[in-house]
Design brief:
Helix content is about 15%, strand content about 20%. By secondary structure, the chain is an alpha+beta fold. The protein contains two helices and six strands.
Length: about 130
């Protein structure tokens, strides 16, 4: 299941626990979830933290200070399932239940510089990455 090895992070529906490397986090965890719930996961690249949402509400930051090497390699969406219920997965083709506007309010240049710094090796610059802002 996601979060049961050191290469993944997970929010488990049966107990609401956040996991990484089989260890539960030490801070408040989220609500349990199941049928008819909507769960979201995101990354705040500026603060280098993973966050979760549940039914359109911010649950909280689960993991903080991710190493730059993890962010450079990339994190990929994963869903672990132990049920016979159908899943509907949204990778952005429909509006998200959670309003991402609070995470888009940073100054465009701060976001752009932050992402460029993560995605490029030192000294390498270019305009091949587009940053979308509202």
């Amino acid at each position: 299941m996601p979060g049961w090895d050191d290469q993944s992070y997970g929010y488990h529906g049966d107990d609401g626990a956040f996991f990484h490397a089989r260890k539960k986090t030490m801070h408040k965890e989220g609500p349990t979830f199941g049928v008819n719930d909507t769960v979201g996961c995101g990354i705040d690249y500026i603060s280098k933290r993973i966050f979760y949402s549940w039914n359109g509400k911010f649950v909280g930051f689960a993991f903080s200070k991710l190493d730059d090497s993890i962010l450079r390699r990339g994190l990929y969406p994963t869903v672990g399932v132990d049920t016979n219920c159908p899943l509907f997965i949204n990778f952005g083709e429909r509006p998200f239940a959670f309003d991402l506007a609070p995470f888009r309010k940073w100054e465009a240049n701060v976001l752009k510089d932050g992402l460029m710094g993560l995605l490029r090796s030192s000294g390498e610059r270019g305009d091949d990455c587009n940053v979308l802002t509202n």
